[in-house]
Amino acid sequence: MSTFTKVLLATDLSPQADKLTECLFCLCPDTETEVVLAHVFDDDDDADPDGSSFKKARSRLDGYKNDIEQAGYEEISIVTPAGEPCETLSRLAEENDADLMLVASHRKGFLKRALMGSTTYELARATMIPLLINKDEEDEVTENLLDTVLIPTDFSRKSLEALNVIRSLREYVGKVLFVHVVEHSRNKHDYKEKYGSAKMFLQELVDEMKIFGIEADYRIAHGVASKKIAAICERDNVSLIMMTKTGADMTNGDDLGSTSENVVLNSDCAVMLLPAEDSDEEDTFS
């Protein structure tokens, strides 16, 4: 059974957002999953049921609903409030007891510093539930999100929250790739010790996955964590990064230096951010 039982699929009705239904099917294969389709209008006039903007949006949302029903899902609702998108979607997630939110990133603009106030980025900072950010462009072929899942870890409990999701979806996961980045070492001897310890822990994680029948491997890198993760994603054709949202930076917006934020901003593949159970624990990647 999937970890997620009620999903908020937030769409701006763009071609990129059209691919979120495939993400839903991958992450929530249980057709008893409840789905809330949400489109937030900028103002009350657009949300007027008698207006042309509302009718066009509603027609598109009905199309989404039909596609999801055709896949076997039965509990599907549509909500179309007006307001500031990030605040409104966060409120909708809480009101509907959603345990997963799906959004699309317009990757070309999303990577520009000037657009860091975008809805997707604001949600990455603010939302308190798991958030899937899909980055497929309109002309890209959508791949199975679970083909190759990369899990960055510093071996803290919170950095391994993704294992709970992986275990629940073990029948659908192709491969798990654990990544540990040694960002700082005093000298070659210090790095060798850290490398040896990491290798031991990573092998334990790989062996655990194999117990669940999941193919797994690991990578160890030395340098800036977010850059090394991005390079490994490209080299190993990673389909999804699944990582814990850690540190104060991600939730209060004071800084853009944490690994979680840089991975969200710079990765080309989809990213799932998971809330950390213990928000006071330090992120040793940062």
UniProtKB/TrEMBL annotation:
- Organism classification, top ranks? Bacteria, Bacillati, Bacillota, Negativicutes, Acidaminococcales
A Pfam family for this UniProt protein? Usp
Protein name per the record: Universal stress family protein
What domain of life? Bacteria
Q: Which SUPFAM superfamilies match?
A: Adenine nucleotide alpha hydrolases-like
Q: Which residue ranges does the record assign to the UspA domain? A: 4-133, 147-274
Q: Which family does it belong to?
A: Belongs to the universal stress protein A family.
